[in-house]
Amino acid sequence: MFTLIGNVFKNLRSKYATRLYPYEVRESFAGSRGKLEIDPDICIYCGICAKRCPANAIAVTRKPDKTWTLDPYRCIVCSYCIDVCPKKCLHMNAKHRSPE
Amino acid sequence: MAKNTIIPFGPQHPVLPEPIQLRLVLDEERVVSAIPVVGYVHRGLEKLAEQKDFLQDTYLIERICGICSFIHSLTYSMGIESMMGLTPPPRAQYLRVIWSELHRMHSHLLAVGLLADAFGFENLFMQLWRTREHIMDAMEATTGARVMLGTCCPGGVRKDIDPELLKFILTTLVTVEKEMDEQMPVLLNDYSVKQRLCGVGILDKQTAYERGAVGPTARASGIAMDLRTHGYAAYGELAVEPMVETDGDCYARTKVRVRELYQSISIIRKAIGQIPAGPINVPFKTKPDGEVIMRAEQPRGEVLYYLKGNGSDMLERLRVRTPTFANIPPVLAMLAGCELADVGVIVISIDPCISCTER
User: Fold this and answer.
1) Model confidence over A19-61: pLDDT tens digits?
2) Do A80 and B59 lie within an 8 Å CB cutoff?
3) Which of B319, B324, B320, B330 has its CA nearest to residue B353?
């Protein structure tokens, strides 16, 4: 009995295991998959990312206007689109999408 | 003659992390039998997988389970590779082992944590989950995600782990082992924990065998069954021994998980020590054709995949038999004759994953 009592006193002396989020935000690791971003200057709007996306989260149009849209609620952040992009214009931002 | 009462246990119950209903047939406080009712989180993923191409399926398959996702994609990838006659490079095989074992560790820490919560030991639950966070960090640092790693694909893996990150995994393991050395004696030796676990929910070896128990549930009943001993991925070079206990009660199942946690640490260390250099995937242009059954050891037991391809991008059929599905008949045997107050602990002791079961 009372086998965890030492741990209780240790926890009273040690710092918190949790953070006061949102005031203190946890830093992501380098290479973390946070949110998908595009560099529109390099994109050729070929639509391969939209075709390959497992969640159908990307829509690409060429006519009348060249558009690339991402539905962030459908995106599963797998980064498959980044792998298949022929121009490498997609990249993952390590920071997660914020609520606004 | 006393009249039996039927009370519903679940689908929403404080000890259940996921919805499943057990209709308990009670004689006073004693459970006579239990009737399982599943179907609360069915998502139709098997049908959806037939409408996506086989590479997209890799990411869909991962989402069958939020705990052992990597091993789902690993088993699926091994099935596709077997259909297409591909052999992933040795480095990819070792990386698969490292991520599989990290997944096993975080799953087992989650399971024993939930068990501690089920018998009311909240402090221990918090400590175990705090330790689990280190593993989640190691997974995020190496793959970019905490649970849905998305790194396994047919032909190998998508991402390499550089030497610095391999060192980071090793330092994480040192921290985890140190914390586990403090927590595990509490889980295994504490008087009140033993009162709740020892002799509760006994499943003897014969019943476990007859009812098709898998994973820690089978091993705790004395069945030495661990698919890692068959040597898929790089397990053949890492000499894995099944962790077997013979008592068959909730305590034995917990002990198997604790021993497997330490075993996973040594497997990861050995894998990192032996990992060869080289490519991490093989290119391919073929499409899956034919039928295959592929099995792998998940934290909860054996998962079985049936894949049928027809030479096109889409699979004709995908069928998954998950370990919790196999462990439901054994848990019904454990519940027969137990006290009502022990039902929560017994159900959690098999580490049920309902989303897996229902897909």
Assistant:
1) 888 888 888 888 888 888 898 888 998 989 999 999 999 999 9
2) yes
3) B324
Tell me the per-residue pLDDT of B100-127, one tens digit each, with 9 for 90 and over.
Answer: 999 999 999 999 999 998 888 888 898 8
Domain with A71, as residue range(s), is: 33-93
Find the CATH number of the domain harbouring A45: 3.30.70.20
Say if A3 falls within a structural domain.
Answer: no
Angle between helices B163-189 and A5-13 (to 10 degrees): 140
A76 found inside a domain = yes
Residue A25 lies in a domain: no
Based on the structure, what is the number of domains in chain A? 1
Q: B206-214 long-range contacts, Cβ below 8 Å, gap at least 24? A: B207/B330, B207/B333, B208/B248, B208/B330, B211/B329, B211/B330, B211/B333, B212/B326, B212/B329, B212/B330, B213/B301, B213/B326, B213/B327, B213/B330, B214/B300, B214/B301, B214/B302, B214/B323, B214/B326, B214/B327
Q: Residue ranges per domain, chain B?
A: 5-358
Mark yes or no for CB contact A4/B127 under 8 Å. Answer: yes
Q: Which of chain A's residues have a Cβ under 8 Å away from the Cβ of B158?
A: 83
Instruction: Provide the ipTM.
Output: 0.85
Residue B183 has pLDDT above 70, yes or no: yes
By C-alpha distance, the chain B residue nearest A30 is B141
Do B144 and A79 make contact, defined as CB atoms within 8 angstroms? yes
For residue A29, the chain B residue with the least C-alpha distance is: B141
CA–CA distance, B118 with B347 (Å, rounded to integer): 10
CA distance to partner chain B, nearest, from residue A92 (Å): 10
Contact B56 A3 (CB under 8 A): no
Structural domain includes residue A83: yes
Whole-number Å distance between alpha carbons of B75 and A62? 39
Chains A, B: CB pairs < 8 Å: 59
Proportion of chain B above pLDDT 90, given as a percent: 44
Contacts of B140 in chain A (CB under 8 A): 28-29, 32
CATH architecture group of domain B5-358: Orthogonal Bundle (1.10)
Binding-site residues on chain B for chain A (CB distance < 8 A): 52, 55-57, 59-60, 63, 123-124, 127, 130, 133, 137, 140-141, 144-145, 148, 150, 158, 182-183, 185-186, 189-192
Average pLDDT, chain A: 86
Mean pLDDT of B37-55: 89
